[in-house]
Design a protein that fits this description.
Elements (H helix, E strand, L loop, with lengths): L4 H14 L13 H5 L7 E5 L3 H7 L5 E3 L2 H8 L3 H8 L9 E5 L5 H11 L5 E3 L3 H9 L2
Parallel strand pairs: 1-2, 1-3, 3-4
Helix pairs in contact: 4-6
InterPro entries: Rhodanese-like_dom, Rhodanese-like_dom_sf
Length: 139
């Protein structure tokens, strides 16, 4: 006997998706303080997956590299020289620490999936993303 039925299952799935961040391991999310400290750690990559137009409107987090989400898969497949020429930074190694950021913390989930599917193993998200950064920085 199915007590929930199709509509009930849909509600359960929606609630689970809304709580996805609560259930994440703390090791898979970066804090504001960690992101603020990125300039002191040149081995850490802070990748902003917003569109360039968004960055022009709002600004960017210092030490971040802009790779729009729709370019991320291709960018991570570039050879080292092509990546450096395009993004002005060496390409991350598969074990490099990568922190993804966006505007509100939603696109980072897709970015994380893309990177992990390509074998990047030390990937975290900044859930607060630009909105939290700007608020804490008084922007």
């Amino acid at each position: 006997m199915d007590l929930l039925g199709p509509a009930g299952k849909s509600v359960v799935i929606q609630l689970a998706n809304r709580w996805k961040f609560v259930l994440r391991s703390i090791n898979t999310m970066a804090t504001y303080e960690q992101v603020k400290d990125v300039p002191n750690h040149p081995d850490v990559y802070l990748i902003d997956v917003r569109r360039r137009e968004e960055l022009q409107q709002t600004g960017f987090i210092p030490a971040s590299i802009n790779i729009p989400l729709d370019e991320l898969d291709k960018a991570l497949n570039l050879d080292g020289n092509a990546f450096k020429n395009k993004y002005k930074r060496s390409k991350p190694e598969k074990q490099s620490r990568i922190i993804f950021t966006c505007r509100s913390g939603n696109r980072v989930l897709e970015a994380e999936k893309i990177a992990k599917s390509q074998g990047y193993s030390n990937v975290v998200i900044y859930k607060g993303s630009w909105n939290e950064w700007a608020q804490k920085e008084g922007l």
